[in-house]
Write a structure and sequence with these properties.
binds iron/sulfur cluster; Rossmann fold; binds magnesium ion; binds adenosine-5'-triphosphate; 4-stranded antiparallel β-sheet; 317 residues; alpha/beta; 12 strands
């Protein structure tokens, strides 16, 4: 059991092809199972539209699943009420991609970082300033910015303020949805170091979503690869990068920049991504898979164990 356990999770969104057409379902997340181990980093990777952010919103209880369960320390989060829900809201925090959009432009740094302390009554008034300064220092910011506003900072500094705010409630899990991708490349490493420091020193667990496979390789303990709403491979990070089993993972890794000098970019598999509203039959990767063979366009491969790892592909039967 992990600190977060996700079991057979599904999220379908209703849609219509035309105004009076019948309602259909877009299968954004389609039967996903994984655990975030206590103190560990689980990375979710996959192309745009594969369902990563939808998983993040489900885990944060921002949206309700169509079916399946999300357990926080063994309890279904949909069943949480009152104090236990407040405890969950404190324990599981988010770091967004765009630090500007997630800060209120009319609130000073002090107001922003102290707000969760006030809401959750975590700090006496006379100790508030010291606590805010301590939080800012933990993300490498100094105390002389307390009365400044978001527009006075760079993107990297704003992301540090967002992280300090998330840390105010002493979370156990941080859900980080592309926390680096809006930042300059030169700043990304600094923010990544802060996150790594938090994970090591404060034993915070991460559900870490990123398009940048080099960052995932560096930071995560385990990787779950998503393709059109499904996990197609799950493995410890080093094993996944050394010997990817699933052809989709192979293609993702092959498209990622290898050299340190190469600019960071999104890993993209060749060929058109099928629309999640017109899912191909069988393995959803088959129209683009260089290794497809007879059963691939007819039967959906299940996620099965192979050498202590999990892979959903007919090549491994
Ligand atoms: N509220 C919604 N209503 C309808 N469809 C949605 C909604 N949210 C997401 N989707 C669809 O669900 C699918 C998965 O979206 P999601 O944002 O989870 O992908 P993602 O992996 O995070 O992509 P990206 O890497 O671009 O952020 C997409 O096809 C998206 O259009
Ligand atoms: S099941 Fe077939 S099409 Fe799908 S990834 Fe495996 S080999 Fe390719
Ligand atoms: Mg997303």
């Amino acid at each position: 059991m992990g600190i977060i356990d996700v079991i057979s999770l599904r999220k379908f969104f209703p849609f219509r092809r035309r105004v009076f057409a019948k309602q259909e379902w877009l299968r954004a997340v389609d039967g996903v199972t994984f655990s975030v181990r206590d103190g560990a980093v689980l990375a979710l990777v996959g192309e745009s539209g594969s369902g990563k952010s939808t998983v993040a919103r489900l885990v944060l209880r921002l949206i309700r699943p169509t079916s399946g369960e999300i357990l926080f320390r063994g309890t279904n989060i949909q069943a949480l009420r009152g104090d236990s829900l407040r405890e969950f809201r404190k324990s599981v925090q988010i770091i967004f991609q765009d630090p500007f959009a997630s800060l209120n432009p009319r609130m000073t740094v002090f107001d922003t970082v102290s707000e969760p302390l006030k809401i959750h009554k975590l700090c006496r008034k006379e100790e508030m300033k010291d606590r805010v300064v301590q939080l800012l220092m933990s993300v490498g910011l100094s105390s002389d910015i307390l009365s400044h506003y978001p527009h006075q900072f760079s993107g990297g500094q704003r992301q540090r303020i967002c992280i300090a705010r998330s840390l105010a409630v002493s979370p156990r899990v941080l859900v980080a949805d592309e926390p680096l991708s809006a930042l300059d490349v030169s700043i990304q490493a600094q923010i990544l170091n802060i996150l790594q420091d938090l994970q090591r020193r404060s034993h915070i667990s991460f559900l870490f979503i990123s398009h940048d496979l080099r960052v995932v390789h560096y930071f995560s303990d385990e990787v779950a690869v998503m393709c059109l709403g499904k996990i197609v491979e799950r493995a410890p990070t080093n094993q996944l990068f050394e010997t990817p089993l699933h052809p989709y993972t192979e293609e993702l890794l092959a498209s990622a920049p290898k050299l340190k000098r190469e600019p960071r970019k999104r890993a993209i598999v060749k060929g058109d991504v099928p629309s999640p509203v017109d899912m191909p039959p069988g393995c959803s990767f088959h129209p683009r898979c260089p290794k497809r063979f007879d059963p691939c366009d007819r039967f959906v491969p299940e996620l099965k164990e192979r050498d202590g790892r999990l892979v959903a592909c007919h090549l491994y039967r």
